[in-house]
Each structure stands twice: as C-alpha cells, then as structure tokens.
Design brief:
The protein is an alpha+beta fold and 557 residues long. The chain contains 18 helices and 10 strands. A hairpin with a 2-residue loop joins strand 9 (447-448) and strand 10. Helix 3 packs across helix 18 (543-556) and helix 9 (150-177) runs parallel beside helix 11. It is globular. Residues 1-26 have low confidence and may be disordered.
C-alpha cells in the first residue's frame, strides 16, 4: 500500500473530493456543530432524568449507556477544531459526528421515557447525509493529516522509526511463543527518552511542562503500540503511573532518588494495586503495611497479602504498591498508602525471593515474595503476575510522600491512573491504526469474485468508518493531553478511555473480518491485533466501573 495512503500525516487533498452521489459536501461544520448541540441537549435531559431516578447505582444500564453516549458526543465535539483545518478534515469530522449521534439515537429507541426525551430522532437530516454509504465509502483511504507541530512531529518520527526497526521484528514471535520483552527494546527506549517523557527536566527527564507535556507521551505511545501493544506502547505505562504519583505527592528526596532512575530505566516498575477480591473497587483492598524494624534497625513496614494482575512483575525492580496502613477498614480509601517496594528481577515463568529477618512486634520474621504468571490470550510479552508477599520489609523512606503520605495513597495512585487512562486511549489508537493499515493493504490485494475487495462498497464503508473513528480518537487524545497539562481534563480522560477502547474492538474485529479466513490464522498480524484490542476495555479501569463509578457519577454530581 502506498505511503501516501497509509501515512496519517499525508495531506489527503487528492482524496478529498465529494462522493459521486453528492450525498455530502466537505466543510459543513456549522451543521455538525448544530447537530451536536441537539445531541448535547438530549444528554443534558438524560442526566437530569438519571438523577431523578436515583443515579447510577439505581439505574446501571441507563447510566452505562449514557456514559458511553456522552463520551462519543464529547469526542465528536472535540473534533470540530480539527475539521476547520481542511476539506478532508471537515469530511472526517462530519462523518464522525453523524456516527456518534447515530449511536446515541440507537440507545434511545424504545427507552425514550427512561431517558426523558420525546423522540429518538436527533438531527436526522444531518445524520442521513453523513451516514450515506457512498459518503462512508469515499473515506476508505482518507485517514487525514494529524496536524502536529514541529516538535511533536519529531517525537512521532523518532518513535515510529524505533517501533518499525526494533519493536516490530519481535512482535509476532513474542506473541506466538508467549515470550519475554527483548532487553534491546527496554534499553533502546531508554536511550531515546521514552521513560523520561513525563519526568521533569530537573530530575533527569525531558518534561519542560507546557501544553505538549502529555501530547509527547500520547504520540510516542501510539507509534509504539502500532508495532506492538505488549512489547511496545505498554512499556511506558508503568513508569508513567509511578512518575505521576511521585510528581504529585512524593517528597523532594524521593523525587531525587527515583525519578532519574525511572527516566533512565535503571528501575522498571510494576503496578501492584489489584487484588484477587478487589479490582476496580480499590477502596476495599486487604494487603497491609505494618510498622516494623528492619535488619539494620531502620524504621519501615512489612507488607502482607496478595496482589494480582501485576504486569511486568517479574522483570520489574520495584512495585508501586498500594496497601492498607490503617487497620480500620471502615475508612476505605482514606486508610491506604502508596509504597515503592524494591525487588530483584525474576524469571518470567515464576519467581521466589526472601529477605533477611526483620522485627515485627518483637519477633523476627523472614520476608518472602512469590510470583505466579497468569497466562492470557493476548497482550503478551510483559506478562502479568499474582504476587504473594509475606512480611516483605520496605524502608520507611519508600512510603510515597513520607509521613504526609500516610492515608493518601489512593489519591496519589489515582493521579497516575488518570494519566494511565489517557495513555491507554493512545495505545488503543495505535492498535486501531495498525489494524486499519493491515485491512487496507489486504483489501487492495485480495481478489474475490473477479475484483479486489477494496472495490466493494461494503469494504470501503467499513474502512471509511475506521478512518474517521481513528482520527477522532487521536485528535481527542491530543486535546485531552493539553487539558491535563493545565491540570484539567480528568473527566475527559475517563471519557476518552471508555470510548476509544471500545471502538478499538470494533476496528480490530472488522479488520480481521476483511481478511476473511486468513484473519483467523496467526500467519497474519491482524489476529494478534484482535486479541490485543480486547484487553483495552478491561485494564486501567474496567469499562463498566469506569462508566458507572466515574463518568456517570461526575455527570450527575
């Protein structure tokens, strides 16, 4: 497939002509804005209605669908500025706005009373115009430019080249063999600054603040995920989460100690929050941290309990671990604290470590840590683990925030997770982009019934919808990144995670479907992209919990 077609930075001007049917004309942004305003009025009425009916806990189905519909409409609203930059951009914007409104309308049909609206019909003329099959088909190979500034284009080019040259050659082998992340990828990413993108320059990183502070991370993550989710884009996530927690609430000594190590990949962390009985409901976690005297008489804590889904837990040299420091469980998240828990590197197939004895309640105990890998259908390379800790000692200076951090671990962890949601959306964009490119290339070369399948309207319409979903997701990720750089956008970060990760499943599925039987064969990379896409709505906040406990609650607050 020609670079001018698949490169999202190509101008696409030659492909921007209106479809022959005349169903749509580029630049109709006023109509798009008016249609979205009508949709937003429906969302506002639904928020009022949900509140009247008792809120998300009483109306879970309603709240879940409202959260997703609101996320789609918000994503479309965020695309309007992009649409004003050219004809192709306007066509993608109008198409996506119509798609988001159509999705909202399908949720209303049969439930108008529940939603508090009189009709499921929203901006019907606009939707009909921009959901016309010929219009969608006209977008098949028109992904549109990204409009990055010079600095961000440099970031894109750097990480795209690394992904193509270093990550991609290993992606299929690691996936099929359930292998490990090659060390040359970790060291190579460290050399090009991947782990220091969010570390302030004063602490050995590359962050200078400003509107592009988060955008660089989004751009880099997409390019790495385009080559591989498991051994590319996800490698940045865990250092990012711990970095954000330290920047928000770490002591100056902790920043000086840990941030340079994170930026240089001298320490690769894993996140240890989830427990076998507590996933998204973090406030209920049971793992405890109890004051104890270390082998050299130093103050510290012993960690006891089991954590699960600790991605990269064997390779990691430290765990960012959330534990209960207040035994009064009625305090919920107010009794949790965040620790940096050093550990040796372990073997991917499982590990066991022990420490020198420590003193707990006057008695000596030997600290133990054991990790068991959890096999998964996709997202392979980093591996996830269940990690059991028994009297594992941590020095007091590793309590993030020091004494002031006691009981504040939940808030520090959430500061990292908000960034993690944005980064997960960027990972989803990378997976979608790879799936789209694979589908276009296959469609241009696969002959069925005498024609290449790229020539069939149904194939073109699927590819056209992919193109506008991907660009809308990408542009909204940029916008949310700029909001977060101004200490805003927490709600939007949750929305983009909810919308984009679910959209990625559809894009990957249809890309596989375009491949037909070959899509189901591991011979083609699209099968890997399909199973990798499935995890996106689960990690960094399960979709249902994110919609009900975060988005819907904030909408009705």
């Amino acid at each position: 497939m020609a670079d001018t077609i698949i490169d999202a930075n190509a101008t696409g001007a030659a492909s921007g002509a209106s479809p022959a049917s005349g169903a749509a004309l580029a630049g109709d942004l006023d109509a798009a804005a008016a249609a979205l305003t009508e949709a937003e009025q429906v969302i506002a009425a639904a928020i009022t209605r949900l509140t009247e009916l008792g809120g998300p806990d009483q109306q879970q189905v309603f709240a879940y669908e409202l959260a997703h519909a609101g996320a789609g409409i918000t994503t479309a609203r965020g695309l309007l500025d992009y649409g004003a930059k050219g004809e192709v951009e306007a066509r993608l914007t109008c198409g996506f706005a119509a798609d988001a409104i159509h999705d909202l309308s399908t949720k209303l049909i049969g439930r108008e009373t529940l939603w508090g609206v009189g009709s499921a019909s929203i901006a019907s003329d606009f939707v009909a115009r921009y959901r016309d099959p010929e219009f969608l088909a006209s977008l098949a190979t028109t992904p549109g430019p990204r409009h990055l500034n010079d600095d961000m284009e440099m970031v894109q080019d750097t990480f795209r080249a690394f992904a193509a040259d270093v990550v991609a050659p290993h992606a299929e082998h690691v996936h099929r063999t359930n292998g490990d992340v090659p060390e040359q990828i970790v060291s190579g990413l460290a050399e090009i600054g991947a782990f220091g993108l969010s570390v302030p320059a004063d602490y050995g990183g590359f962050s200078e603040g400003g509107d592009d502070e988060y955008t660089a991370m989004v751009v880099a993550t997409e390019e790495l995920s385009r080559a591989s989710l498991g051994i590319g884009g996800s490698l940045i996530t865990r250092p990012e989460i711990l970095t954000r927690a330290l920047v928000k609430g770490g002591t100056e000594e902790q920043k000086l100690e840990w941030l340079p190590k994170l930026a240089a990949a001298e320490v690769m962390p894993a996140v240890a929050v989830t427990e076998p009985d507590y996933g998204s409901d973090v406030a209920g976690i049971k793992v405890t941290a109890t004051p104890a005297t270390g082998p050299d008489g130093a103050d510290g804590y012993v960690i006891n309990g089991v954590k699960t889904w600790c991605t990269f837990g064997a390779r990691a040299e430290a765990l960012a671990l959330l534990a209960r420091t207040d035994p009064d469980r009625s305090k919920g998240h107010r009794g949790l604290s965040l620790f940096i828990v050093p550990k040796p590197r372990g073997e991917a197939h499982g590990f066991q470590f022990s420490q020198d004895p420590v003193t707990v309640d006057g008695a000596e105990r030997v600290g133990k840590m054991e990790g068991r890998p959890i096999d998964t259908i996709g997202y392979r390379g980093m591996h996830s683990y269940e990690i059991a800790l028994e009297d594992w000692w941590v020095p007091a200076e590793n309590l993030v925030g020091g004494d002031d951090g006691l009981g504040k671990g939940f808030y520090l962890q959430m500061a990292g997770f908000e960034n993690g949601r944005l980064q997960t959306a960027a990972r989803a964009v990378g997976v979608m982009q790879a799936a789209y490119e694979a589908a276009v290339e296959y469609a241009e070369n696969r002959n069925v019934f005498g024609s290449n399948i790229i020539e069939y309207q149904l194939t073109q319409a699927k590819l056209g919808r992919m193109a506008m979903i991907i660009q809308a997701s990408r542009q909204f990720a940029y916008a949310v990144g700029q909001m977060m750089a101004r200490d805003e956008g927490a709600m939007e970060a949750s929305m983009i995670k909810a919308y984009v990760c679910k959209a990625a499943e559809w894009v990957a599925r249809e890309a596989l479907q375009i491949h037909g039987g070959f899509g189901y064969a591991e011979e083609y990379e699209v099968s890997r992209l399909f199973v990798d896409a499935r995890v996106l709505s689960i990690f960094e906040g399960a979709d249902e919990t994110l919609c009900l406990k975060v988005i819907a609650r904030r909408l009705t607050a």
